[in-house]
Write a structure and sequence with these properties.
- The complex is a heterodimer of chains A (688) and B (598).
- Chain A has 688 residues and is an alpha+beta fold.
- Chain A has 22 helices and 21 strands.
- In chain A, strand 1 and strand 2 form a beta hairpin.
- Chain A is elongated and about 120 Å long.
- The N terminus of chain A is likely disordered.
- Chain B is mostly helical.
- Among the domains of chain B are: 232 residues, no CATH class; 42 residues, no CATH class.
- In chain B, strands 1-2 form a two-stranded antiparallel sheet. In chain B, strands 3-4 form a two-stranded antiparallel sheet.
- Chain B starts with a helix and ends with a helix.
- In chain B, 59% of the residues are buried.
- The mean pLDDT of chain B is 91.
- Classes of the chains: A alpha+beta (688), B mainly alpha (598).
- The interface between A and B is large, with 76 and 65 residues.
Amino acid sequence: MSKTTKKTKGIFDPKLMRAALIDSFKKLDPRALWRNPVMLSVEIGSVITTVNFFINLITGKGEPAWFTGMVSAWLWLTVLFATFAESLAEGRGKARAESMKKTRKEIMAKKLKKPELGGEYELVPSTQLRKDDIILVEANDLIAGDGEVIAGAALVNESAVTGESAPVVRESGGDRSAVTGGTQVIANSIVVRITANPGETFLDRMISLVEGAKRRKTPNEIALEVLLVALTVVFFLVVVNLSPLSIYSVKATGQGQPVTLVVLVALFVCLIPTTIAALLPAIGIAGMDRLFQKNVIALSGRAIEAAGDVNVLLLDKTGTITLGNRQAVAFIPVGGHSEKKVAEAALMASLTDETPEGRSIVVLAKQKYDLRMRELPQNAESIPFSAETRISGVNIDGHAFRKGAGDSLIKFVRNAGGTIPQELDGQVTAIASAGGTPLAVSRDAEVLGVINLKDILKGGIQERFLQLRSMGIKTIMITGDNPLTAAAIASEAQVDDFLAQAKPEDKLRLIRENQQQGYMVAMTGDGTNDAPALAQADVAVAMNTGTQPAREAANIIDLDSNPTKLLDIVEIGKQILMTRGTLTTFSISNDVAKYFAIIPAAFVSIYPQLGILNIMHLANPFSAILSAVIFNAIIIPLLIPLALKGTKYRPMPAERLLIYNLFIYGAGGLLTPFVGIKLIDVLINILM
Amino acid sequence: MQNSEVFLDIFQILILLITLTLLTKPMGGYMSRVYQGERTFLAPVFGLLEKLFYRISGITPDAEMNWKQYAFTMLIFNFIGLAVMFAILMLQGYLPLNPQKLPGFSWDLAFNTAVSFVTNTNWQNYSGESSASYFSQLMVLMVHQFLSAATGMAIVVSFIRGLARRTAETIGNFWVDLTRTVLYILLPISIIVALVLVSQGVIQNFSPYKNVQLLEAISYEKPKLDINGNPLKDASGKQLTEKIIVKEQTLPMGPVASQEAIKELGTNGGGFFNANSSHPYENPTPFTNFLEILLLLLIPAALTNTFGRMAGNTRQGWAIYTAMLLIFVLAVGALYLAEYSGNPLVQKLGVHGPNMEGKEVRFGLGGSVLFSASTTATSCGAVNNMHDSLTPLGGMVPMVLILLSEVVFGGVGSGLYTMLAFAIIAVFAAGLMIGRTPEYLGKKIEVMEMWMSVITILTSGVFVLIFVSIALLVPAGVSSMSNPGPHGLSEVLYAFASMSNNNGSAFAGLNGNTIFYNLTGSLAMLAGRFAPAVAVLAMAGSLVKKKYVPPSLGTLPTDQLPFIIWLVSVVLIVGALTFFPALALGPIVEQMIMQGGV
């Protein structure tokens, strides 16, 4: 996989900021804001104080107009900051959706009457294509819709979808048969059966996803909103209660003024959890966007959240845990031959072997045993690997060099009239049980030794599994290898468990078993035979190179087709939840300081004794209330970067993570506003 | 006050906490066996009775209910109890066991009292000895102290089943839970305790009230009043008085001991006499005082252990217990300190020492403080001293304990289920903070659980705020206050806090027997009891269906100190944020005025 070439814009790109600013004003419309009840109530509060401001201004009665004016202005800003955060989070996705929309323009498709290359076709617009129509796509044509290649093979440029400029091969049969509408065939022709109606194609879905048009609140988001709305209702009653409390107290003491409407609204807005409510939509959108930056498309927000909860991870061995290919690591002689002789024979036998394994044998022989290889001799005859003999090699100068699986080679040597050294069997088993793949090497009718081919783990994979374990996630390696080999690799890679000689139905069963025990299971897959397991898994990541059934069964698509992405997805899922949790805690902890600012200010005219609660020594009631309102407003833009980037996730046991976050966001949330409000109060009094 | 007395008080507090902690495990274990239908050592005595009762009433003990059936049965049962009680109180003049020929209650008082006893509040706008016949006391008030307590315990047990069972539908059988609670838990302990109380001097009889000759006649000056009740004055405007000599006193009698035991054990608090546990016939000695305190804490504390066992992890139970204990110790300390510091205005007059106004000397500072804190930490509401006479900050402590939604041990059953709802809220925030969708005891916390938890913990607070607002604005609310200013506000706040949270104790300065307070109070009590109860059952119904997620390293440990401290903080922060303004204008400002007045 090559690096993606698309241009990524920073979140705070000036162009995006400008668009977000315009959009944030549009979002002030109550019909748009009702989806966020907490902020809607702030908007209603702003209207009330604004009306109050004009009454003050015109009649000259009540509180000073500058005070009600300032409070109104900052309340409006509070709402605006919230809509701005959401718009900003949507910005990057929208920009990308725009560019994708351009590729969705109407295409003329060559609709075939018979599903064969070179058949007769008529030109129809792509909007009229329906499921199961058959189309022909030739070089330089755009593919008119999602579909499956049923004949031919072609090079396809999928950069419109993946941002990847290197073309990929799409061919009928096998696991690379899916094509995406809007991508372009560069060479050769294919026959495609359309699998999605217009408007339901992958590109359509992606556009609506990144635009956020179809964004639904996730269950966890709704549950959090329940808490926030409940708190808002309670604080509404608390504030309403304040009025009778003050009216009674004024009557009882015969001094002071009942709390005014503007102060009540100000206190209400300060108390309700505006910080988290303002940033909540942005957190979810930004999370999806961060995934998008990693070239991963989540088909629902729920899937990402589920990723944060995953406790069992099914990983294919090849490509995820190990590099794709085995490599030769040692030559082991048998029958009294020298190691070098084995190496020489292995080298000879592999001269024409172009597989990665074969090349690794050549490389090892040259490097470790310093063998000089001449040019391939003229008289060399290559014996390719065949399914019947299961061995391969080269005939040179009348000598037959062969290599192959132990029993196959034994058969070959016996047929040639040779004998088998006794220790061969032992060596073969020893290698296999250590996780390697043994290949016996022979020259003519003599077995010389064994090559040890080993799976090479990806760099740093053990550390990742260690991290996963400390996050409480169990990793299970899926492999087609025999149990012995699988066990050895599993222990080397430090996965928790493995499934050897796995067939697709074994995967499905394993997922079901784990789910029945209550675990959330994530897996990656690409083949059609992975589809049932993908459909069953809670978090199912399909490779974009995979087949259409696999892509349909999955809830997350990895455009880079890189199986280790699952780890990033888990991390982003956790980050989204953590950001919600920490900002909620922060938001509510803030209230304590706001009480200490506003309550003495509101009641000091009735009971001067309550001045003792003014522990921040704010200059006067007006500046105290205003400071609290301003703090409450500007904390939102200050936290936008955190909401968009997400709380940093450190893999550590839950308990330590909890203590850490409680300390930072709980205790921090308690203390920060004391400092902030005091500073703002000082500033106000310098300026006024 | 001598240092040795302080030392003795602290010693008494420590002994109480140690005894309580030691009893929690065996008592909790016993109750979990009762609720899981296991055979207990009382089976030979009550087993037959239990079966007989099921036979007579046609109950199939094995037929389990889903949450809707459970909630419906619970509501019907309580509604019928309410109706019967209402009728008996109004008609008590025509009913037997009424040697004093007491007339029926007025309709609003009867309704308030019936609601009060059915909701385990036991707010008493009547005075026991002067309004309730022995029949009413026994058949209505005592019986419902058993039944309302058993209702609360049944609800919490079915909720625990909801948490503990995996992918099931039913949460138990209300009739069975109710019957077993009464037969195996409340009745045996009440009988034993009643006998112990009688041995200490608590009375148990059906005699008419006794007139006894005073050893020493007392006399006092009484202001003379005209026919309209206005003071008569002489020509110079001086108040006319007459001298009254009292030689005789009427001593109310009655079946006190039987009601006393369940009053504490079921965190009811409905005293036989108006003076409640400060009356020598209810609470004669420091020993009975200690026993009563222990008794009212016993079941709420032990239920945490029952919870842990039934949920399959006793550490979870101890975690909840620890959280409760932490707040309790804080409260006892604060109350003791406030009362020990005394009233500076009184001290200026040369009377030194702690604030002893409204306290019984035989209990002293320690026995009074411990009782006040315990009776308000649990939703008992029995009192052995006058809460209205506590120092302002001292009086704020019981008030706050009530306003925290009665979760510091709380009412029998209701305390634990409300605390568990708090735990679910705490888990929600904490779970998110560790990057998981939250789960408690392996059950996912989702939208339904959030709604129901929020209803459970906030209903009482909502009704306190609404009714305090109304009471402070309407004349009918303000006219009942016996003290103007911040203290009057505290009285109203305390009254609605106590009723909404089903505590039942009072800042007695408020005249509660008016149509306004009887009706608003009834509404507050009903809402504060049944809205959370139904919400908790609905939550049990949702939880019981969920599958169990086994814990891993990534799971939030809810049985460790960090979570316990977080839970305590959530309880305190929710309470503080809701009531800080009201407390500021009530007890806090009153304290400042008191200190400023020196």
